[in-house]
Predict the structure.
Amino acid sequence: MVRAYRILCGVLGVAFVVFGLGAFVSFFGFHAPGSAGLGEPLPVGPNGVYFVAFTGSCLVGWGGCLLGAARRPEAAPWIATATATGLVLNAVYRIFVWILGDYHALGNLPRVEAGLFLLLALALLWLRPPASAAKAS
Amino acid sequence: MLRWVATAFIGALLVLTLVLPGTSLGRRGTESATRMETAGESSFVGRPFPPLALRTPEGEAIPWETLQGHRVLITLERSVDW
């Protein structure tokens, strides 16, 4: 069970850091000389990439916490709870996005992502080490 | 106990994501549904536009007849009915 938890935290941590760095770098790509200015691959303007860079910075930090949890699961099991909360919030707005017609071009993607995030949140919730393990360590 | 409450909440959201397409709310905005609902509307192509009550942002009525003979661009904007 702890092994599965470590793998989950490790995979999520790496994914968060990679996506976070990508989002962070896209800000500088947007403002680079000669850039098309469309914020590729995300079709956002200057205000949009500002928040994309903010999200990327947070994702890198969050991913680092998850990688730490993968190394020492018993040290901070509440990282799993915090991550599960973040994933649920992500799922909630994606469900709303799917209902709204404004995001019609995305098709079923928001709903599929919401389902995936909810399953990951459940896995984190039930695989995390008990709080007593943290006290013992 | 708290873990079970969280699990129930997440489970409810999961069920919601699964049943959404089958609900009237979830069918909104899908192209196939729009095509089904407007199947007979293509018969309007090539015919005069039906009378339409238009108003300026100030609330003044725009007589439809005054637009006849002119090129009119109509933009339909969907809004969320809260």
Residues 77-130 of chain A form one domain.
